[in-house]
């Protein structure tokens, strides 16, 4: 009987969520992006993606939608593992609506400015624009990436998206208000372990990461180096900027968990605007670039938001679904190449 009651309650919750206008818009947007890619891409994509060079545009759409399915399964796992926990109210951790609105606009404007400065600075130095990913992340690249570029990218992102916002907001809000403190360490650890295990197995099965082809020396040096670089350049910036600061304010402003999840996904996507593979030299390529930014990052960004909302702890997504898998798992061979580790 309890199982039947829980199943019935789950169906009612799912039906309520699907009726939300924000969810309808997100579903429509996802379908439109799929349609645009199918109509515009033709027989090949214009991106430098060595890791998936053999995949056709249709194959890449299939991959994106399978990734969507996997995330839905992870969301189900997350809800099941957190079903007995006291649900934290992140909206109460944000200030009043007027203040939350001002802070949100300020932070989004600051982030847009940081992306522009990162682009200009990197270009002046002869490098790829600085976004949330180092050039060659996940998809690989045929272009040259130097150790100096990797270190400067990580330093810039850490300072601009993590250190400066944290110093500013930490003066006004407690660690708990910024989702930096666990309310249940044991439950968080169980959730982290479960999600990390599933995601790692999926990554290994789907992507066949070359980390297992590294020599013992490359593994011992390259894996910790990859972890440190991506923790500084991608993971902590996303955690502080989006999930510690913006997510509670999105929830305060919208009063809607689904809308907050969607906004979290969109913000996370926007921070990858300058991924080195994007091509903006024609309207068609620009449309495809924006489409694949959404297909690649929107869904993971939403899941990171779900993990934060269910636990009240922005650190959970760091260990469960970012720092180790995919980045350390997928990008260690790339960093070994960048630093020419023999």
Automatic annotation (TrEMBL):
Superkingdom field: Bacteria
Organism: Kribbella sancticallisti
Name of the protein: Uncharacterized protein
Keywords, alphabetical: Membrane, Transmembrane, Transmembrane helix
Coiled-coil regions, chain positions: none
Transmembrane segments: 21-41, 61-82, 103-130, 150-169, 189-207, 227-246, 253-274, 286-303
